[in-house]
Amino acid sequence: MTPTIDDELWAALGDPTRRRLLDLLLADGSGTATSLSGRMPVTRQAVAKHLSVLERAELVVPRKDGREVRYVVNEAQFARAVEQLVSVGAAWDARLRRIKTIAESIQALRSMD
């Protein structure tokens, strides 16, 4: 069964800064806007806005940690994104195989002339 493609999820993943934030969170296990901004070429405020987008797409989960909010990757939603990517990749592989077959048929017909 082909999973439904979630446009909000893919819009969130479409930004390289948000993908980098996810990379950092996956590597470290968690992070705050402050700790993440120290490793990014953007301000803390920009990181906080990107984390909000990731939160709306359910890719990260906020957890209060004293006065700060610590973010962790929502593994179920991340797995869903991977599943959708695999599905889209398989669909494109099938399309490209069909195009190759058509091109080979055209080439064979031309060589017969």
TrEMBL record:
Q: Extract the Gene3D superfamilies matched here.
A: Winged helix-like DNA-binding domain superfamily/Winged helix DNA-binding domain
Record bears the keyword Transcription: yes
Q: Which GO terms describe its molecular function?
A: DNA binding; DNA-binding transcription factor activity
What is this protein's record name? Helix-turn-helix transcriptional regulator
Highest taxon in the source lineage: Bacteria
Q: Which residues form the HTH arsR-type domain?
A: 1-93
| Keyword tRNA processing part of the UniProt annotation | no
Question: What Pfam families does its record include?
Answer: HTH_20 (PF12840)
